[in-house]
Amino acid sequence: MRRRGAANNPLAPSLPAGIFFLKTCNMTSMPSSNNATSPVAEYFGMVWNAVITTLIGLGVTGWYMFTKPVTLQYPDEKPEIPDGYRGIHIYEKEKCIACDLCSAACPVDCIKIESAGKGKNAVITRYEIDYNRCLFCGLCVEPCPSNCIHMGKSYDLAAYRSQDCAIDFVKLWEERKLQSPSGDVIEWPDTPNPAAPGPLSPQRAHGR
Questions:
Q1: 22-59: per-residue pLDDT in tens?
Q2: Maximum distance among all alpha carbons in the chain?
Q3: What is the pTM of this model?
Q4: Which of 52, 58, 108, 182 has its CA 20 to 30 A from that of 175?
Q5: Domain 89-191+200-205's class?
């Protein structure tokens, strides 16, 4: 059976060379099944194999003792979320036309919409997303013709009861003037940037 060396290992650039040297020694020292060996030689070969594999494991773990720690004191410290992250939704109620395209695109049927009428004159009475089932796939954002639903950057939606994770965004806006249960809002630039290709992009502001 062929074994991969350090050159083909994707972890090779991030680990010290000594670990891969031990791996090489371990591979070359293992007795071949085709060669007849005495029980004593086989025993000491297994002992050597155990020592080498232990050193390899300790080397991988010990290497991190000499690297910079990356631990965050959550929740006092929050990680920096990159653009394009698919987090808890942000909903602009005044732009929604109740077309139901987002609900139809949802693969797990977690979006419930109720309205009086359709189009620009529609009165949205319920826009609920059940986060117990949501996959955060972003498929609800793409077909929206009015660009009223967005994927935010927040990821924390803790609750003691599962029903509290079903968020009615209409009720949230009418009672608390929030576009998202996380407090994230969408801010559109006053004037478009002519140098930016494609449609106008929103600017996200976290917290209010």
A1: 555 555 555 555 556 788 888 888 999 999 999 888 88
A2: 88
A3: 0.61
A4: 108
A5: alpha beta
